[in-house]
Amino acid sequence: MSAFSIGLSGLTASQLLIELTGQNIANAGTPGYHRQIADLRSQAYGQLVGAGVQVLGVRRFTSSPLDSAVMQNNVDLQNVTTQLGSMQQLQSYLASGDGSVDQLLTQFFNQLGQLGSKPDDSAQRQVVMNSAAGLTNGINGLSGNITQVQQGIDAQLQQIVGQINSLTPQIADLNSQIQRASSQGLTVNDLLDERDQLVTQLSNFVDVRTINQDQGQETVLAGGVPLVIGNQSTALQFAVNANNQAVLSTAGAAQHPLQITGGQVAGFLNVRNSIIPDYQNRLNTLTQQLITGLDGVHATGIPLSGPFSQLNGQRAVSSVNAPLANAQLAFPPKAGTLTVSITDQATGQRTTHQITIDPSTESLQSLAAAFSSIPHLQGVVNTQTNTLSLLAQPGYGFDFAGRLSTQPDTSSLTGTATPQISGTYTGTANDNYTFTVVGTGTVGVSPNLSLQVKNSSGNVLGTYNIGDGYSPGSSLPGLNGVVVQMGAGTVNDGDQFGVQATAQPDTAGVLTALGINTLFVGDQASNVGVRPDLLTSPQQFAGSRSGDAGDATNIQNMVKLQDTPLLGNGTQTFLQYYSRLVGDAGTTTQQLGQDQTAKEVMNQQLTAQQQSVEGVDVNEEMVRLSQYQQSFQATSKYINVVNQMLTDLVSIIPYQ
User: Fold this and answer.
1) How confident is the model over 179-198, as pLDDT tens digits?
2) Closest-CA residue to 478 (of 495, 489, 466, 462)
């Protein structure tokens, strides 16, 4: 009966091959489906003739090198695509155009320049204040948009973690099903396809690596950590740490973040933790330089109303008793001096005083005491807000413009003549001028009577006749804008008086640090704003350095900042710095776009190669179907022949 067994085995094999071909054709468009084929071998246990065909099993067509290459390329593609999408969003916020920071900067300085030609124009002052407010609002908005991108990424990462935690238990469950089915000798190809699909989905998110184990199980790793081992899976969690860095870790192990290098998670983490903070920091750098530059000039100016009767600091210290260097100020002061002028409003007489600032020892309380040591001025610390306020005695005003004392210290003069000081110092460095009387006699009368002037370095700047030929009370030639007048009376040889000549009244930067008479409040891009009282009372804008009507010196000093390279280690102006920031975002976006295109092309090529090996070609399957049909028909014919042969054989054997 072996002939029948041979035919039956052929029919069984042909039927299976036809069914597999139908399965392949039916799943030609099914994602992740691998073409299947039966492995056959001849049964040969007879001495002369074999025993037919044996079906050893059904296997999938796979290529491990191609599968690995496709998965790795997908991991890289998802990484780049994710970064590109975030960078395109960021670039759209940074780009130049209506309402952009560079446009608002230009508008502000243009309006400031126009005010310089008519500094007393109240309407133009309001325009300048509104323009300044528009600039700070634009900076606030850009900072907020950048933060919004970051927060959006946090939400997406949280969502991705949920998807990962949904996928890994499914993979673990399939591992378990595959193990059970394999141990029972069942075909698990469809389960393997399903698991491969889940692993592919996982590779969209993280840098997946798989390790094959016994009985068809697969260990899945990401970021160097096993997410699936056998039928067990590990859940992930998302968090933002104390350094504002987003991290993924296994549940309960936030202190050990995963080092994920691919997939959407890697792309999001790179943008969120590195790129966005870099651009936010650069925007803060621009903002803080804008604040320190303009505040430093404005603080040493005088408004239309003249010297101040009261000023309140806008920037707080962390502790009123801590040294200023340790008081967590956004703009820490440095060692230097602060020049304070006190004006008697009744007489117009002015005295100049200097406070030495040492941030390593000076606290807000001790600084307030130093202000209070100046006649007619009081420094008050508000312990509720940790800020400093300055109050002038009624009838007096104060400013930080570094104006010359109208009456120098004459305590060392032994004669009756009194000097008067006027003018505006035009030098570029702080200095002290010492005036020494040469000769003894009567001003404007005695011969060979002069006044010698030396600077703080001891260099003689000039010698001026105050004797015969000099008219008492007339101005001596200016010394960098300093004008001296000697009144009538006597002088004695060696008598001296001094004049403090101030170019930079606040070399310590303490006014900006504490927000005293500044243009801005706040200390970074997210909170910078124009001082509220300047918006409501633009006449308080400190555009003058002399206090004289029509003086626009301080305004002009502010305008000069537009073209001063204060950023990029002294190589870039505000606009150049911002243009570089925008340009860098564009370059990064362009590079990512090119990388994405290259990886998409590679993905198409690798996927095509993978499909050629593992996928279903319907035309080929139709050819095979025809072959298997012919085989089935031939085997059926064979069985009929054997049956006829046996019938004939039986008929010719005589009946016993």
Assistant:
1) 999 999 899 999 999 999 99
2) 462
569 and 628: one domain?
no
Classify the C-alpha dihedral 255-261-265-271 as positive or negative: positive
Same domain, 130 and 106: yes
The answer on 529 and 494 residing in a single domain is: no
Give the chain's domain count. Answer: 3
Q: Which residues, at least 6 apart from 409, have a Cβ–Cβ distance to it below 8 Å?
A: 497, 498
Pick the last residue of a domain from 501, 530, 557.
501
- Between CA 230 and CA 259 the distance in angstroms is 23
The whole-chain average pLDDT of the chain stands at 94
Is residue 596 one of the residues assigned to a domain? yes
Other CB atoms within a 10 A radius of the CB of residue 83 amount to 24
Rg, the chain, Cα only: 44
> Residue 367 belongs to what H/E stretch?
helix 364-372
| 8 A C-beta contact, residue 541 and residue 128 | yes
408-427 tens-digit pLDDT: 888 889 999 999 999 889 99
The span from the CA of 614 to the CA of 612, in Å, is 6
Task: Identify the CA nearest to 456 among candidates 423, 412, 414, 502.
Answer: 502
Residue 469 lies in a domain: yes
Q: Identify whether 299 is part of a domain.
A: yes
Same domain, 607 and 628: no
**Same domain? 143 vs 238:** yes
pLDDT in tens, 476-492: 987 899 999 999 999 99
SS3 for 575-618 is HHHHHHHHHHHHHHHHHHHHHHHHHHHHHHHHHHHHHHHHCCCH
200 pLDDT tier (thresholds 50, 70, 90): very high
575 and 527: one domain?
yes
561 and 431 share a domain?
Answer: no
Asked if the structure places residue 452 within a domain, the reply is: yes
Nearest to 593 by CA among 203, 87, 69, 149: 87
The token duo for 115 is 């005010």
Last residue of a domain, one of 441, 467, 501: 501
Residue 42 has pLDDT above 90, yes or no: no
Q: Which residues pair with 308 in a beta bridge?
A: 398
Structure token digits, residue 82: 């994710």
Cα(493)–Cα(266) distance, integer angstroms = 82
pLDDT of 272 higher than 90: yes
Question: What is the SS3 assignment for 268-298?
Answer: HHHHHHHHHHHHHHHHHHHHHHHHHHHHHHH
Question: Are 491 and 445 a contacting pair, CB within 8 Å?
Answer: no
| CA-to-CA separations, 105 to 287, 525, 528, 574, in angstroms, rounded | 11, 14, 14, 8
Domain range for 157 = 74-308+517-611
CB 80 within 8 A of CB 592: yes
Predicted local confidence at residue 46, as pLDDT = 58
pLDDT in tens, 573-617: 999 999 999 999 999 999 999 999 999 999 999 999 999 998 999
Per-residue pLDDT at 1 exceeds 60: no
- Average pLDDT score over residue span 290-304: 97
Residues 227 and 165 in one domain: yes
pTM for the whole structure: 0.88
Query: Which two structure tokens, joined as six digits, stand for 509?
Result: 């930067």
The conformation of residue 243, written as its DSSP 8-state character, comes to T
